[in-house]
Design goal:
3 strands, alpha+beta, 55 residues, three-stranded antiparallel β-sheet, globular, 1 helix
Length: 55
């Protein structure tokens, strides 16, 4: 899921019971290199990826 502010998106997910998996990390290579990405998991096991494209 593309977001404008990854930190705000992670905070919103956590307020709704999702568990952040680590901290946002930049994608190391390829067409999305440098893009911060973070995974979050819901109580039912659903996993989403949050990505904040470079400005």
């Amino acid at each position: 899921m593309q977001v404008d502010d990854i930190d705000a998106a992670v905070a919103l997910c956590q307020r709704h019971g999702w568990q952040a998996q680590g901290r946002p990390q930049p994608i190391p290579a390829g067409p999305f290199a440098g893009t911060p990405v973070m995974y979050a998991v819901a109580a039912d096991g659903t996993t989403i990826a949050l990505m904040q494209p470079p400005i």
